[in-house]
Design brief:
- The protein has about 140 residues and is an alpha+beta fold.
- It has a single domain, classed as START domain (Alpha-D-Glucose-1,6-Bisphosphate, Chain A, domain 4, 2-Layer Sandwich).
- The chain contains 4 helices and 6 strands, in the order ααββαββββα.
- Strands 1-2-6-5-4-3 form a 6-stranded antiparallel sheet, covered by helices on one side.
- Helix 3 packs across helix 4.
- The chain is elongated and about 65 Å long.
- The chain starts with a helix and ends with a helix.
- The model has no long low-confidence stretch (mean pLDDT about 90).
- It comes from Paragemmobacter straminiformis.
- This is DUF1499 domain-containing protein.
- Pfam families: DUF1499.
């Protein structure tokens, strides 16, 4: 009986994680622009970020990045567009479907296009480096194009 109750709780949690709504107003937010633009992925507990200056048109840059991002399994766009200058995507883990939210924001500066990317988890306190790893792959592909 206890085993069935435990399995029921696990199943209920799995359903909640997969079906919990993702509010664009909560996740597709303006990013702080105070990070150094040294193109280094900065991992943190449960998140990762990168900021860089790239000599590319902002809209073109976002379109290139979106092509890379949407080629990632279990990744969809939550909100935003290249024309808006900000996009947020959801990438779900394979087993449980845990959502990670990644927001990218671009702005034109006098020295080029500044791109800021922030990836973070929704549930739990530590992502075991998953967001930093994903950002590293995406950013490497973006700068190689």
């Amino acid at each position: 009986m206890i085993l069935l109750g435990g399995l029921g709780l696990v199943a209920a949690f799995a359903i909640y994680v997969r079906l919990a709504p993702s509010d664009p107003a909560r996740w597709n937010i303006s990013l702080p622009m105070d990070a150094p633009d040294d193109c280094m992925v900065r991992p943190a507990r449960g998140s990762a970020s990168v900021s860089c200056l790239i000599a590319e048109d902002p809209t073109v840059l976002l379109r290139q990045l979106e092509g890379i991002v949407l080629a990632t399994p279990r990744t969809t766009r939550l909100a935003g567009s290249p024309e808006e200058g900000r996009i947020t995507w959801i990438t779900r883990s394979r087993l449980w479907g845990f959502p990670d939210y990644t927001t990218v924001q671009v702005s034109q500066t006098c020295t080029g296009t500044r791109i800021d990317i922030f990836a973070r988890l929704r549930f739990g306190g530590d992502d075991m480096g998953v967001n930093a790893g994903r950002l590293s792959v995406w950013f490497a592909r973006l700068t190689a194009e």
